[in-house]
Design a protein that fits this description.
By secondary structure, the chain is mainly beta. The protein has 1 helix and 10 strands, in the order βαβββββββββ. The chain is globular and about 40 Å long.
Amino acid sequence: MHWIKLFVSEVEALQFFEKQKFFTLGVNDQKVCIARFGASFYGFKSRCPHAGVSLSEGYINDNLEVVCPLHGYRFSLLDGREVSGHNCHLPIYPIEIRSDGVFLGWY
């Protein structure tokens, strides 16, 4: 796994985000969303695997699920599974907070 530095510190990352806000970055010709929920950070593919729309237009609910803005599909930010019964999976990327910054794990 390759680690990409997103922020120089956890404090910088916390200040950058508002609660439940996303930002998108390009990694190897793919778009990845980074989201904050409370004091935790989550990384996931930016496009819904069902309809291809940008998940950054959706929101994160209280069950730690990103909700697609088009059809309301809900994907767990812990494992990427679609939780409302549909057979699709959202790629999830680990986020690590270290003493030297906040990093995204890339495969």
